[in-house]
What we know:
Elements: H1 2-6, H2 10-21, E1 22-23, E2 28-29, H3 34-64, E3 82-85, E4 92-96, H4 100-114, H5 119-125, E5 177-182, E6 198-203, E7 214-217, E8 243-248, E9 257-264, E10 281-289
Parallel strand pairs: 4-10
Antiparallel strand pairs: 1-2, 3-5, 5-8, 6-9, 7-8, 9-10
Bound molecules: 2-acetamido-2-deoxy-beta-D-glucopyranose (5 copies).
One 2-acetamido-2-deoxy-beta-D-glucopyranose (NAG) binds at residues 115, 118, 121, 164.
Amino acid sequence: MAKDKNKKSSGEMMASFKEFIWNPRTREFLGRTASSWGLILLFYLVFYVALAGLFALTMYVMLQTLDDYKPTYQDRLAIPGLMIRPKLEALEIVYSIEDTESWDVYVQALDEFLAPYNNSQQVMTNYECLPDRYFVQEDSGEVRNNPKRSCQFNRTMLEDCSGLDDRYYGYLDGKPCVLIKLNRVIGMLPGKDGQSPFVSCGAKREDSDKIGELMYFPPNGTLNLMYYPYYGKKAQVNYSQPLVAVKFLNVTVNEDINVECKINADNVETTGNERDKFAGRVSFRLRINKRE
Ligand SMILES: *[C@@H]1O[C@H](CO)[C@@H](O)[C@H](O)[C@H]1NC(C)=O
Ligand SMILES: *[C@@H]1O[C@H](CO)[C@@H](O)[C@H](O)[C@H]1NC(C)=O
Ligand SMILES: *[C@@H]1O[C@H](CO)[C@@H](O)[C@H](O)[C@H]1NC(C)=O
Ligand SMILES: *[C@@H]1O[C@H](CO)[C@@H](O)[C@H](O)[C@H]1NC(C)=O
Ligand SMILES: *[C@@H]1O[C@H](CO)[C@@H](O)[C@H](O)[C@H]1NC(C)=O
């Protein structure tokens, strides 16, 4: 039958497969002679070595143009973000006054964050600068003026929120402190015409009657000009970011309050930015539970 003719026996198929792997007559392996395989391997070897060489050369040339002390390209120069401390997983501060453990985590986070701001620590590592003016430390031409000095930000400047007089930062009294910091941007000069930038906080509209009175430390929520410009981790090793503490004096308990803090500086954009609507601002949820 025609059907049987086309159908090779399994023995025949095995034999032709074996011959494909290694054909002793033509001395071919997988259908190619040794020299053919050799040429193919040689081609790929040369090809990949050339590719690797090109990559290494490009990398080398690029690294030559990089400066250890400042970024070659830096995005978002005019619009740094804000961040809060304490910050656990989420941007929220939620605790119950009666449940010590629920707020102790915040107190511990603040203790840890503020340890390098201890006056003794600041006096050891940083300088007392002239306030209300930028602390510019120019390189003179090619000669680098590194490392650069940094200004003291004493923990005591946070007064009621320093954790020194009230070591619970107000959490126990239902008057918690939240620290605001402006993310570091190398070379940024926030503020304008001798006016220091300042931080202000408020509630989202529907919560405005629940947020109560706020108090800022240092006074007016100022980020003094002397802490700018920042020259980068490598050039300015001891830099302490300036902070603003906000103390919530009379929040309505057992209610969610959506708080938004923003930086106010003529030259730091905070509104209507299409690329980054969090530029220059931070929002978080505040809720203090208290048994009636
Ligand atoms: C900072 O000061 C606090 C309170 O005086 C103290 O408990 C803490 O050990 C100090 N931390 C450092 C790193 O000096
Ligand atoms: C920081 O504190 C130290 C010691 O308490 C003090 O000598 C220094 O003047 C303070 N610096 C600033 C900038 O207030
Ligand atoms: C940084 O702090 C160390 C002490 O921890 C000090 O010896 C050094 O001079 C400081 N560097 C600058 C640039 O201020
Ligand atoms: C805070 O702001 C008010 C009004 O803008 C001003 O009169 C006062 O001098 C400022 N206080 C400080 C310490 O900058
Ligand atoms: C605290 O806020 C409540 C309203 O939420 C208000 O009735 C009360 O007078 C405020 N207390 C102080 C001391 O401002």
